[in-house]
Amino acid sequence: MDTSLNTLFSIALGIGLAAATGFRVFVPLLVAGLAARAGYIPLADSFQWLQSTPALIALGTAAAIETLAFYIPGVDHLLDVLAGPLAIVAGVLASASVMVDLPPEAKWPIALIAGGGIAGITKTGAALLRLKSTAFTGGLGNPAVSTAETAGAATLSILAIVAPILCVAVALVLAIYLFRRSRRARVRAR
Questions:
Q1: Which of the two ends of the chain, N or C, has the fewest CB atoms closer than 10 A to its terminal CB?
Q2: Are 144 and 76 in contact (CB under 8 A)?
Q3: Each residue of 97-134: pLDDT tens digit?
Q4: Considering only CA atoms, which of 49, 26, 25, 27 is closest in space to residue 37?
């Protein structure tokens, strides 16, 4: 495959994984580590640790705890607050980890702006959805939101690996949708 096409795919893969971190911080990193371990995706040299057995065990444990914690009333809202900055950091790391064909002076700005940005937008949209669920259902709908977020993280992560360009398109449509919904909610709140 052409080098520029490889670069485009690695950027798309990174952005797709970053978008998924807005739903769950650890699931996309776990999926990326497993995919790298299986030989489906390359990792940048400084991120080879992501496919190591200790890292996969730690990420698997963290993903399970994070997922289960979102089903506990009250804890889910606390996690939304804490996971905001963590999602952005995870988005930057997830995107940078797979941009193997880029020099650092290009990789890190793209990872910070595109990866961190899409992770932040996705996380904000998911948090607003949970807030609406709490307001409209008294919190009874939050388990459904948690399930959708986990499924979204896993689906976007796998889609990023299987069809990175399509994943970026889906992530952008999702980000625009969530952004517009949050703007409408702010306008109605005034």
A1: C
A2: no
A3: 999 989 999 999 999 999 999 999 899 888 888 888 88
A4: 49
